[in-house]
Design brief:
Layout (H helix, E strand, L loop, with lengths): L9 H17 L4 E6 L4 E6 L6 H21 L7 E5 L4 E7 L3 E7 L5 H27 L12 H9 L1
C-alpha cells in the first residue's frame, strides 16, 4: 500500500536539514539524502549537485520495497539496513521509523563503522522529528497547510 504524501513544515524541514548537514560532516560522507518510501527526496546534503537525486530517490525506494518483499518471504519484519560496496563509492541505507530512508554515499575517506555510528545517532534524531511532525499534522482542530487555498485560487491558477 502506498503511503500518503507527507506534509512538511519549514520548522521540521530545517531540523531535518541540520541533521543531514551534520551527518555529511561527521561521517565524512560525499552525499547524505533523506527519502520517503514513495521515492521523494525530502532533504539532501554534501555533493548533492553532482547526483541525479530524482533517480536516486526513486531507485532507493524501489530497492527498499524489494528488500521488504524478501524480508516477508523469510518471515522477517524488514531489513532495516543495507550496504553496497563499490570500487570508488559505497552506499549505506537505513530505514528510520518505518517512514523514511537515510542514504549515505561515502568513499575511502570514511569507513562503514563510522557511517553506521553517525547514522545511528542521526537516525534517532530524525525519528524524533518525524514522530513530532506526525503528531503535529494529526492534531485535531489543527488547520491544514492548504486550508487557506480556495476554489477561486485554484481556478485562477489554471486560468492564467
Amino acid at each position: 500500500m502506498v503511503n500518503p504524501q507527507m506534509v512538511m513544515y519549514e520548522e521540521e524541514f530545517n531540523q531535518i536539514q541540520t541533521v543531514v548537514d551534520r551527518l555529511v560532516r561527521d561521517a565524512n560522507a560525499k552525499v547524505v539524502a533523506i527519502v520517503d518510501k514513495n521515492g521523494q527526496l525530502i532533504a539532501g546534503g554534501g555533493d548533492i549537485d553532482n547526483v541525479d537525486t530524482t533517480s536516486l530517490a526513486s531507485l532507493l525506494a524501489g530497492n527498499v520495497a524489494a528488500t521488504g518483499g524478501m524480508a516477508k518471504l523469510l518471515k522477517e519484519n524488514e531489513f532495516a539496513t543495507q550496504f553496497h560496496e563499490g570500487e570508488k563509492a559505497n552506499i549505506y541505507i537505513q530505514l528510520v521509523g518505518r517512514q523514511v530512508i537515510v542514504v549515505v554515499i561515502f568513499d575511502a575517506r570514511s569507513s562503514l563503522g563510522l557511517v553506521r555510528l553517525r547514522v545511528k545517532k542521526g537516525g534517532d534524531e530524525l525519528n524524533n522529528i518525524f514522530e513530532a511532525l506526525s503528531k503535529k499534522v494529526a492534531q485535531p482542530g489543527k488547520d491544514s497547510p492548504f486550508a487557506e487555498i480556495t476554489d477561486e485560487d485554484i481556478d485562477n491558477l489554471f486560468n492564467d
